Fold:
Amino acid sequence: MTKKPYIIVLGNEKGGTGKSTVSMHVIISLLRMGFSVGSIDVDARQGTLSRYLDNRKEYSGKMANPLPISEHIPLLPSQHPIREEAVKEDQGNLEKALAQLSSNRFILIDTPGSDSPLSRAAHSVADTLITPINDSFIDLDMLVRLKSDTLDILRPSTYAEMVWEQKKQRAIRDQGSIEWIVLRNRLSSISARNKQQMEDIVKALSKRIGFRYVAGFGERVIFRELFLSGLTVLDLEECKMPMTLSHVSAKQELRNLIQMIQLPDVERLAA
Ligand SMILES: Nc1ncnc2c1ncn2[C@@H]1O[C@H](COP(=O)(O)OP(=O)(O)O)[C@@H](O)[C@H]1O
Ligand SMILES: [Mg+2]
Structure:
């Protein structure tokens, strides 16, 4: 019997923090490890992940050996004018997409940077939820309200509360749990003092709000450049792209990330 796919969701309530970039890199990492991977773009209106994958198909079409790619489904939110009906339709569409991708070992879902019934439904099916944040207090605000002068934690934000709610829903539905990971993306764009403050606050938060905190990618031009060709840092050699030191570091960051998120069946890489 085939195993139920393990579901990874990329989510937060802010655009531009790296959800689609991290989605693409996690998908291609898993494919290159030999796993079958399905993907769903719940942010199909913006469609960054869908376009990233389309670009990859086009690039791959010109190669002698095609590049690995996920079985992909873009999902648009329901247009039903009655909210309850829209919620039902969204849930139904998501279930259908998951069923269609059920022969894959992993399914990755990329979500929009704003709250919606479809995004909530996607959060509730996560086995692992990954929330990328940038190194700024604006992004921290997505997790928690801070007192501006002392930076004391006032209360969890609406997003953190939404995640708790989906964790509850998940436990009721199938006794499952959601492992929540907050990932710092585009590191090093701020001063050392700010960075230390961020580090201290995120660590305190991780205990209080209940997430695991891991380092993501540094701020690197390569992540912006790869979108148009549909490539990731793992494809550069195969596509005979020149490798710079920054590319090698980016690859290492991705390896570390995959190791830190601790997915089932993914063997610990040698340190
Ligand atoms: N580590 C990084 N270094 C440099 N640019 C990045 C990095 N991560 C993401 N970006 C760029 O930031 C922009 C937003 O990223 P994206 O993945 O689309 O975010 P989201 O899906 O959260 O809206 C894109 O132009 C992307 O190329
Ligand atoms: Mg996106």
